[in-house]
Design goal:
Length: 723
Amino acid sequence: MELIGRAEAEAIAAGRHGEPFKALGIHPWGKGQVLRAFVPGAERVTALTPAGEVALPPVPGVPGLFAGQLAGRVAYRLRAEGHGAAWEMDDPYRFGPVLGEMDEHLMAEGRHMRLWQRLGAHEMVHEGVEGTHFAVWAPNAQRVSVVGDFNFWDARRAVMRKRGATGVWEIFLPGIGEGTVYKYDLLGPDGAPVPQKADPVGFGSEHPPATGSVVRRLRPPSDPPLPLSRAAANSIDAPISIYEVHLGSWRRKVEEDNRRLSYTELAVELVDYARDMGFTHIELLPISEFPFDGSWGYQPVGMFAPTIRHGTPAEFRALVDAAHDAGLGLILDWVPGHFPSDAHGLGQFDGTPIYEHADPKEGFHRDWNTLIYNYGRREVKNYLIANAVYWLAEYGADGLRVDAVASMLYRDYSRPQGEWVPNVHGGRENLEAIEFLREMNIATYGRVPGVMTVAEESTSFPGVSRPVHEGGLGFGFKWNMGWMNDTLDYMQRDPLFRKWHHNQMTFGMSYAWSENFILPISHDEVVHGKGSMLGKMPGTAWEKFANLRAYYAYMWAHPGKKLLFMGQEFAQGREWNHDISLDWHLLDDPAHAGVQRLVRDLNRVYRELPALHVNDARPQGFGWLDADNAEQSIFAFSRHGAAGDEPVVVVANFTPMERTGFRVGFPQDGIWSEVLNTDAGVYGGGDRGNLGGITTEGVAWHGQGQSALLTLPPLSVVMFRRG
């Protein structure tokens, strides 16, 4: 009697059998058991059992397939011989499943918030044997295999077990461990091959342009990241000054063929620099693995894998830990808005659009030539929300800055009429994306207390940084793109014409309390032909630096947390290029070193004076003293902290004319120290000012009961603190 049917045997040998666990391994047969093994390249196979060796005869006409009878169900290994070689191995088809019923239940409902602990590739000991468990979601595939060098990239050798209605496939492969390169090989619903795929929940990747996933160890579940007292550092009352960094071009080893710094090197050099500069947080452009350097990480494929460009996941974790040891928070740019269509990625993953929308009117971004996640599908929403929690819980990141939120909120984003699909109410809002963002914020704040989430959102969508229970999206902060666009436009104008655009510097106060804002001067302002921050400034070389210093001081004094992209802190002269290092040699020039010194002092003053940060998001923290002096392009305002905090008065002169004897009202009488003057010689200025401070006199001015006569240097900002 044949020990396996011909059709089934041929399907196994052809790699078309979708349920090999029902055929291979040990199964009841008559009054005993049958053991079937598929070992391509073998001429003889023997089962090594506790009771002795059992020869498994070849199945006639099906090379590589062997089958023999056993008296009972026993543990076994296989010994194979062929072509002059002999080898022993554990048969993957002797092992039971790893995933449990609760995993299946939570995955089916889209509520598995620790999804990465079950999907992906995990080293483990299973049924007494060391190896790696692989699990992947591919609901419409006819067959899924794990392939790699360990099985000659032969999709017939490690066909996975499908776990019922969940669409998840799994297999335990003995002897596979850390550093193993692998992919998934799939047959689509029509039986046609799908391009081999990287693991959607892979924890490591090969160096681009190679695209395989790599088995990498995570921190054991019993050894979570040490708890951080980060809630206070991430609150709206805290001084938050963010240094935005692209790891690949912050600094390079020019003498070593322009190589990138490793996570290990960055843990020292970048962390020490950011701490010395007085920043409170480092924000990294996306570090999830991505294939194309020119995307800067904004087109990720490996959502769970820190890019190998700088080292392993363990080395990335060391960078996060080093930031924490230095008292710095670490924020990661996170991209749930779109993903690239690279063949090894998520697109048409199992031969069908399971991660993306099928209709390009919903599922394709014209601006970036990328695909859009189907936020209405519970498994996709689960995948993304679990990914957000993963970076915060697994690596201890302090926050996520969510990229391109506006593109998610609106179905007609960057689409002409007729090329977008309205929502169920006929409107333009993407209701599924809105619900996804709310659930993501609930999950991250609920499961990893003390973190922050930040939205890059450029529209007037209401309540972006308001709690979900109040109808908001639930973000902690929102980038203030309007403030950035208005003030940068003003600063780029010749001072002669600034008086006609005075409101661009004041308009932001009309909506300053509508959200918890971060003022961003990000990488987007120094790319795509926009030039550098220094290059945007008008005037002579001296005036360019003076304008930039004054603008930074105005920004640090203005309500809202701060963000500055790398290189801007020392007035890099050229536009940012992601392929080369910043121009650190410019610090040999006193003018550039002066801007760097100013930014360091702005961070210090911002941290030390509660009036400049405690009420960043509350109207009681700000008061105009002179908002309407368009003719002289002068702005004066006061900042206020909590009860008992000394107020700060800020006066900006955005013309190249020195103003002497200029009267400004002060909210309290007495002696006021000049705590910062952007015209100071140490910053590259002309050392004009108020000799360290002023004393008010009883002359009512600007609605205050006292005032003082000031000297306002050209293109400058001066700050005063009472006492």
